[in-house]
Every structure is written in structure tokens, then in C-alpha cells.
User: Fold this.
Amino acid sequence: MDHNLQLFNTLSGKKEAFKPINPPYVGMYVCGPTVYNDVHLGNCRTFISFDIIFRYLMHLGYKVRYVRNITDAGHLEGDADEGEDKISKKARLDKLEPMEIVQKYSLGFHEVMQKFNTLPPSIEPTATGHICEQIEMTKKIIERGFAYVVNGSVYFDVEKYWKENNYGELSNRKMEDLLANTRDLDGQDEKKGRLDFALWIKAKPSHIMRWPSPWGEGFPGWHIECSAMSTKYLGETFDIHGGGMDLIPTHHTNEIAQNIACSGHPPVRYWLHANMLTVNGVRMSKSAGNGFLPGELFEGSHPLLEKAYDPISVKFFMLQTHYRSTLDFSNEALQASEKGFQRLIKAVGLLDSLKASGTSDVDIQKIIGDTYAAMNDDFNTPLALAALFDGVKIINSVNDGKLKLNAGDLEKLKSHFNHFVFDVFGLKKNLSSADGETQPGLLVADGLIQLLLELRNEAKAKKDYAASDKIRDELLKMGIKVVDTKAGSSWEIEKKDLTHD
Ligand code: AMP
Ligand code: ZN
Assistant:
């Protein structure tokens, strides 16, 4: 594989050259959603980031097995094994079967991911479909002396593990710091050590989701599902494991401990973590009240939203920030990127009609090289887009007759844009509406508004100010502001401030 792909590995804290264990095959596991409610836009950002990584690896020629699980059992309300199972609780509150909750929110998740034009993973295993594997793994961890049974539950012995392994490796923390930040065990606690976590939890009589096990009826802990399913589908050691950065200190740290306790060696070569989507600097989450849903975004029906946004331009907005940086949501930023996206798509639309010349005035290879260099530098999508926008300038200049490209360069430019805009970034020419139907999209909307602006200019030229004002005022009612300058008239989406209620 001829490339120089560098990945930022959370484990080493630096960028490393990507060398898969068994090229051209690549195994990638990403922690999927807990399906007890609708995914919010923050969750989507993480899954979109890994979709781009999946697509780019395939573009480079790798045969990727991408496993993204569905957590449909075992995720308790608190990270430290306290509270109710999220899905059981929702089922109890809604008076539904847990599997009705799981079905509803898994379907919703898939629908949303489709609107963002992400590819389905190669395998999407569920925790409830792999109870046997989780029990087997827990049994092995007990046999190897890293877990103990108390009253029908099984706990991982972190202190014992730490004597032989570095439990704090992924999060770069020392045992003293971790202990200082963990609450004391109260007299009632079954755990021996404060950092211990559950592999199997005894089900109380009222708990709906329960399975038989060697330790009595219960259900698996959250972390063991990912260790069991990644091992089953990708082997004891695989190439890439991903998820949101919030999973580093507990979920992923515990996954590593479980795998090492079970097999004796680290499970993953490269740990990749996506950063958070924030709103006014606060991490988007349901509990913070700023977790608007993709559906609300596509309809513009949340108080934080000025208008409806198209899923693909939202995706483009996300690509303008590197996956390891936080991305702050604002209407202004999103509207600015809508314009950028229109420019890109317009230029792609021109590619087929450009006329080739005998010679070329510019070096197309530079744009191609810059795009790959950016993507090979830990999937730097904003820089890759900047390279494509250099290409947009060239396309527009060739279209205006100010630059020349020969037939070979024109072909290269076309295939480069098609590969990156559609295959790697998964953008689409026709934007889709909230109900998922393909609509004529922004391109056509722009064309129609331009036509109205021309009619308005003609009305003005005839001194028919009633007609010209009517066009301006009616457009404004639709949220489209006409901007008159000496160079002519243009339009923009009318800006409003974010409301904070
Ligand atoms: P959950 O359904 O809570 O298990 O989360 C699913 C995925 O979304 C995990 O990889 C989280 O790290 C990720 N996630 C949660 N909140 C955000 C956020 N505000 N921005 C980006 N990713 C997030
Ligand atoms: Zn996981």
C-alpha cells in the first residue's frame, strides 16, 4: 500500500505511521450508541468522523472490516456501575418491552446515519446477541485471577491487574490520581477495591433484562460487551479502535484491562478518539439540555436553531474541523459553511462542461498531492477541503476562460473531485429534506433566487419599484436577505442571534 498515513494514537500520545497487522486487511471497532433514546448531533459527529476514516482507508485500497456495536443492555446510568440499566429504565418508564425500546432507537439511529450519507458498518453486533461470549470471557478473567465473584456479581480486580500491567496507560493517569478521584467504598459495597468494575451484575427481582449465568441470573457490565465482540469479529489483537474522547478514562481503559487479563496481550494497535461537539462551549449532551436531535436540526425546530439545515451541509460543516478538535455549534458557523458547500458543489457541477485546452496554466498535481498529504496527516479533513477549494478556484477560472487546462489535467481534476467529494467525504449533490426525500437542493434554490434577483433588476430598470420591493420583501419573509452592492445584488440567509432559553 503506497501511502504515508499517520494516525494519532491515544495510547502513545503521538502520531504514528499506520502499519496494519495483516495488510490489505484492516480491522476497526468503534463503540456504537446506547439505544435508549434518540442520538443527538454530538453522537452523530463521532460516527461521521469514523465513517470518513472507514471510507478513506477503503479509498487507499484496504479491505476494512468495520465493526460498530449497538449497546442494548448493560449500560448503567452511572459510569461506576451505579443506577439502573438505561434501557431497562426507559422500558419501565414507557411501559414497553426493552426490545421495543431497542428496536425503536436502533431504527432511528440508522435513519439518521443514512441522512448523513454514512456507510453501514460491516458488522453491527448487539450486546444482547453476545451474552454467551461475554460470560465466556468473564469466566476466563476469573480463571486467570483478575476477577472475583460476590453474591452473584463478578468484579474486575483493578489493583491486582495494576501490579502486572499499566491500567492508566490509555488515559495517562497514575494509580494515586485515580484513587484520589474515586469515591470511598461504603460498608455496603461488594467491590474489594474502589477502582473495581462489574463484569457481571446480579439482577434484582425487579430487573427486566436478565440471563442465566454460572453466577446466577443477571446481566453483563457495559465494558465487557466491547471486549467480547471485538475479539469475536476482529481477533485478540486488531488494528484500530475508536470512539468519543469521553470513553477514554473508563470504558476504553476497562476494555484494555479485560482483554489483557483474558488473552495476555494488548487488544488494539491504534486507539483513535474523536473530540466533542459543543454548543457555546458546553459539551452537547441530553442532560445539558443542549442536545438537539438531528430531526430537529433538519426541521429547524429547536429553540437554538434559526432555521432548518440540510444533513449534508451539516456534515460538510463538521468536516471543516479536524476530528480531534472540539467543534462548537453556532448558526453563524453553520450558515457560513452552507455557502462554502454551495461553492464546492457548484464547482463540481461545472466540471463536466469545462473545455480542455492544448496546454495547462496550473499544476493540478499540487492539489491532488495537498489533499492526500492532509488526509494522510491523521485525516485532516479541513486541510483536505482547503486543497479542494484551491481546485474550486481553478475550476471557476477555467470556466470563466481565465485559465487553461489540458485534457489530461481536466480528467485528473474530475476524478480527484469525484473521489474525495463523493467517495471519501460522502457528500451529495442533491441535498435532502427533513423527510429524507431527495429534493432539488441548494443548487436549484440558488438558481431560483438568482432568477428572482434578475427579475428584480429588470423591474428596477423599468422603475417598477412596487415589483422590485415585493420580490425583496417576500424573499425576506422566507429568511433570504437581498444584499445590494455596487457590483450587483446577491443573497444571504438572514442572520439572527442564538437564543439561550
Ligand atoms: P453513547 O450512546 O452515550 O454511548 O454515545 C455514543 C458515542 O457518542 C460515544 O462514542 C460518545 O463518545 C459519543 N458522544 C457523546 N457525546 C458527544 C458529543 N457531544 N460530541 C461528540 N461525540 C459524543
Ligand atoms: Zn465500547
Notes: Residues 31, 33-34, 42-43, 45-46, 243-244, 246-247, 276-277, 283-285 surround adenosine monophosphate (ligand 1) (CB under 6 Å).
